[in-house]
Specification:
Elements: H1 11-22, H2 28-40, H3 51-58, H4 62-75, H5 77-81, H6 97-108, H7 120-129, H8 138-147
Helix pairs in contact: 1-2, 2-3, 2-4, 7-8
Length: 153
């Protein structure tokens, strides 16, 4: 397979990566990725190893090496070792701080007439009736209450 991203590190970048590989305070995965970048370097000072040899020496997966090369060429070697920040959260939170406060207030208040205590479904119905949220599951309410160490009993 033809390489699209070829690494040619500067002397300063090589020194930074080499110092990372010698440090004992760095996460092991970051050290392995730094070693892989050093081995893949095709500059005058670099080794320019082939991918199968790098994979054998470092133990990383081929797809990881490909993504690492690409990210190194796009943002630089030091930034390529860091985890990429998520642009937006995976899913939107249904209850923000104000919603959680109202949830706790409902859970701590007296139960409605005809009930001895609040149930998760009663809390869900009350949150929807008060228009705190358009809709929410009992599980989301349970997790929010668990997070605040609240109990319905």
């Amino acid at each position: 397979m033809r390489k699209i991203y070829r690494l040619r590190l500067t002397q300063e970048e090589r020194r930074s990566l080499e110092s990372l590989t010698r440090s004992s305070k760095i996460a092991a995965l970051k050290v392995i990725k730094a070693r892989a970048l050093l081995l893949a370097d095709e500059s005058a000072e670099g080794n320019g190893w082939k991918d199968p040899k790098i994979i054998e020496a470092t133990g990383i997966k081929p797809a990881t090496l490909t993504r690492l090369r690409q990210r190194c060429c796009e943002v630089g070697p030091m930034e390529a070792l860091e985890r990429k920040r998520q642009r937006s959260p995976s899913k939107r939170r249904l209850l923000d701080g104000n919603g959680e406060a109202q949830l706790i207030a409902i859970a701590c208040s007296e139960a409605p007439d005809g009930y001895s205590k609040w149930t998760l479904q009663l809390i869900v119905d009350q949150l929807v009736a008060l228009e705190v949220v358009e809709g929410i599951s009992r599980e989301a309410v349970r997790q929010a209450l668990k997070k605040t160490n609240s109990s319905l009993g």
